[in-house]
Each structure stands twice: as C-alpha cells, then as structure tokens.
Amino acid sequence: MSADKVKSVKDDLVLQHKLFSLSRVWAIAFNTFTQLVRMKVFYFMLIFSVLIIGANFLFLNFTFEQELKILKDVSFGAMTLFASIFSIVGTALLIPKDIEDRTLYTILTKPVPRFEYLVGKLIGIIFLVAVSLVLMSFLFFAVLYFRQHGILAEEIKMIRGGATDAQKEYLKETIFAQGVRPELILGVLAVFLKAAVAAGVALVVSTFASSTLFTIIVSLVVYFIGHAQSLALEYYFPEGQIHGALQRFIAGIVAVVFPNLQMFNIFDGLITGQSISTTLMFRLIGLTGFYLTIYSMISWILFAKKEL
Amino acid sequence: MMAEEIIPAVQINNLTKIFPVPFRKEKVIAVEDLSLRVEAGEVYGLIGPNGSGKSTTMKVLLGLISATSGSSAIFGLSSSETASRGSVGFLPENPYFYKYLTGAETLSFYGKLCGLSRRKIKERTSELLSLVDLENARDRRLGGYSKGMLQRIGLAQALVGDPRLVVLDEPTAGVDPAGSRKIRDLIIEFKQRGISVILSSHLLEQVQEVCDKVGIIFQGKLVKEGKLEELIEIESQTEIILEHADPKILDQINKLVQASEETRLLRSGKPKTTLERLFLKETRAESEDVRKDA
What DSSP designation does A305 have? Predict the structure, then answer.
C-alpha cells in the first residue's frame, strides 16, 4: 500500500465514522432482545397464566367486587414482579457476561462507541419488558373480561323471579366498573415505566460491578430502598422543608441514587376503581425519561474509561 | 518542500501500561516503554511467553484499555478515537460469542456494527462462511459449535467489515493442523491483498512462515525486533541440501572440509519433515483414498 493510499485510509476512516449511529444501537438492542427470547424467558407466561387463572378459583366465596379486585391485584402484582425481574436480572446477566466472556472485545473493536453499546443493551432489555407486558396484559384483560361477564350472568341468575332491565343495567354498571376499563392500561404503563427505571439502575451497577450476582444484589437493594425513599426524605425533611445548599445536595443525591419507585405504584388506586389524572401520567413519563437519561450518562462516565 | 510523511498501519510510541494491585501499594508493570511500527501491508509477528505483555499491547492498540504513558495509533488515528477501529478486524484469544445466534446471524450482527448495508451483509456472510468452511453450519447455533469452529467463526467476524488491519491473538489455539494451515494461508492472502496483520502466536513455526517482521516481547519489554530473515539468519553458517547424493560425493566433501583450517562440519544427515507436514500429507492421502473408494 502506498503512502498516499494509507493517508486516504485515515481520511476515509474519519469521514465514514458516525459519532452516533441509530442502526448500530438498534443492532445491539435487537441482538439483546433475541438473546433473551432464545433464553426462553417467555416461559414465565405459563407461571403468569397459572397465577391469574388460579386467582379466579381461590376466592369463590367472596363478593364479586372482592373477587375482581383480587384478580386485578394478583395480575398487577405479578406483572410488576416479572417486569422488574426481567429488567434487573436481564441487565445484570448480559453486560457482566459480555465482559466475562470477552464478547465485548469483538463488539468494541468494531467502530462502536461505548455509549452506543450501553444504550443498545438498555433499549433491548426495555423492549423485552414492553413485549412481555403486552403479552401479560392481553391475558389479564381476557381473563378479567370473561370473569366480569361470568359474574354478571351469575348475579342475574341469582335474582329470584328474574331480573328486570333496570336491575340488569344496574348490575352491569356496578360489575363492569370493577372490570376491564381503558384506565387499566395506564396501570400497565406505570408498571412498564417502573421496570424501565429499575433497568437503568441495574445498568449503572453493571458498569462497575465485577459479577452478575453483585449487580443483582445491589440493584435489588436500590430497588427496595427506592420504594421507601419518599418516606425517608419526609422523615429527615418534614413537610418538604429543605433548607440550604447542603440539604438540597443531599436530597438530590438520595433522589438520584434511590429513585422514588413508590410513585409508580398507581395500580392500588386503579384496582379500587379510582381514576388516574393525565398530569400524573405525564409526570411519571417525564420522571422515567429523567432517570433513564441520568443513569445512561452515569453509566457512560463509569464505562468510558473502564479497563476491559 | 518537505517530504510527505508515511503513515504506518500501526504506530506505538513508548507505551507503558501499569496495573495497580487493589488494596496494595505495589503495581504490576505489564508493558514498559514499548515502541513498534507496522507498515501498511506488512505481517508483524508479536511473540513472547505467557504474561509477557502481548495481549495488553493489543488491548491498548484497540482502545480496550488506556495507556499509562505513551501513545498508539492505527492509520494515524489515536487508539482512543472510535474512528481508528473503522477498518480493524480483531480475533481475541479463545473467543466466545452469543451462543444463541447462528453462524449467519453472528456475521450479520457484526456486519451491522461495521455499518454494512443489508445487501452487503448478505454477500459477505456467504463469502466468509465459505472461506472458513462453515457453510454447512450457517444455520446452527454457536452453542453447538466446536472450539475450532468457534475460532473460525471468530476469524470470519474479524473480516466481515473488509478491514485493512487484522489483529489476531493466538488464532490457531484449539484448531486442528488442517485448520491451522488454512489460517496460515489466509494470512498470506491478506498480505497479497495489502492488508496489514498483527499476529500473536505460540506456534513459532507458523510465525516464521508468514511474518515479514517479528518483535520478541519479554517481561513487558520489546527485547528484539526486526525483519524476520535478518533476525534468524546465522551469519557464520552455510546450509547445503543435496538430493540423491552419492556416498562418494559426501566423502569428498568431508575430505575438503577436513583439509580446510577454518571450516568445520557441524552436522550431516537426512533432513526431517515436520510433524504438521506429515499429518497433512497422510490425512490428505487418506481422504483421497476414501473418495476413490466412494
């Protein structure tokens, strides 16, 4: 190769390199998704099905309100559990494993900036959580739909001498208020947002952790403390009285290190039939965006100079 | 007018890499004041015992770790810039890949990372699977590949972006002699196509067969470097190999040597082939017999 040719190699490399490439990020994200799917994670759907179908038969002597409430409670609880496990364990399993197996060498020795690798992994895991929540929601809504119609038929049958149209209408209105409502989708969205924040936490931990186990344990600790974060802040700064730069700084650090995950538990209200304000949903979306941006940046800072 | 500077494929200047030992004051010097230069189109062999600093040098060059002091560059671009890896193919020692992907999916994934178009990826995947003899395993998941097959798919992923510099860390580890020879032939082909290669290997015979230049690294220092021919030549000795030599001729040569004051006959006898050559010859003959029988 002549000197001119080598010089043109340098120019080519500079010209061809994209500082940020969505197609590279998507390649990593899709690969992460495929990897998790092929690890047969969707077998959890069997457990989820058993849980929510079983919830129908366990409490047969309860009133229809209690029965539907338990069904929603169990379903939202299981959705939160599975989504959080996927986001934490998925992140903890994949990044440290890439480092341990040296698969990361082959990725980062291609023209892939480290930031793209992290974002790609995060998107892949969040995508998996989204798909699993869509599947769970379909099953949940289907079971709830059939159960509410079943209960309506049973209640009408129980009225002696046959129910009048007014009684039927009343029963339908009361039972369906506890059944499938579009607002339940907001509950599922909140579960998704919470799992996305948990994935962000696990991403930060996995960039400095030395093993999968360490990442899972630390992320779970942060996850649980995150549920009590608002209580702790209220205790130390009663009535939101945060004075002075130091207190502000401490409160800020606590809020970043331990995200307020309790805020995402809106399904408690939804189960009892309360409505959710649009403002609250936008606030949760904004908060998730904020946390994911901050966590991606922190991960990048920690990972940029990591010795591999 | 100043002469135009020739940009080498690889330039490492006074590289030092020190690893701190956690919770201790002491430090480990993995590489010390190492400088080397690989010209474009050159095959450079980096040899040395285990733990001598070969892999660390490669990692610094590829931006996987940073240098404590000194610098390294690929085609004139600093290793710290991601763009420097735009035309590099790397095969790490004992590579692991995503075992849930098939051979073709693996190459497609790395092709996407190199920014290749869908059409190009398809072309390169078929081309490279054929090159490394994995066409029959293209739709098999890597979890079911043998060590040698993994090494070959690793080589294919290193080549997917059509690189102008290939870095191979122990490329023949776990590969049978036929596969090893195939890798050797590929390196020779790279050289013919003007691709620069850095090769780290314990198989010194293989290094000798393909490298233009060799660097011997020991305890983190480059103790010897130069053109291979110059390094291995023994100035004071001369080799004569005869075919179908008559015992009388040999006797005359012996007498001439004995008559000389300075010349000494150090060794005579039948030259030996290598075990590798013998293995390849026998297995090739065997497979030809099988083919004929069939």
Answer: T
Write out the two tokens for B238.
């001369």
- Residues present in chain A in total: 308
CB atoms within 10 A of CB A146: 13
Which one-letter DSSP state was computed for residue B141? Answer: B
Give me the residue from B19, B86, B100 closest to A38, CB to CB. Answer: B100
- In this prediction the pTM is 0.84
Domain limits at B273? Answer: 247-293
State how far the Cα of A49 lies from the Cα of A200, in Å rounded to an integer: 28
Token pair for A68: 């539907």
Q: Tell me, yes or no, whether B199 and B256 share the same domain.
A: no
Let me know whether B56 and B181 are in one domain: yes
Q: How high is the ipTM of this complex?
A: 0.84
**What is the tens place of the pLDDT at every residue in A199-224?**
999 999 999 887 888 999 999 999 99
The torsion angles phi and psi of B286, rounded to 5 degrees, stand at: -60, -45
Residue B40 has its nearest CB partner, among A1, A21, A106, at A1
Intra-chain end-to-end CA distance of chain A, in Å: 32
Mean pLDDT of A133-147: 91
Which of B98, B106, B197 is the best substitution to test chain A (most A C-beta atoms within 10 A)?
Answer: B98
User: How close A96 comes to chain B (CA, Å)?
Assistant: 13
| pLDDT tens digit sequence for B29-79 | 999 999 999 998 899 999 888 888 999 999 999 999 999 999 999 998 999
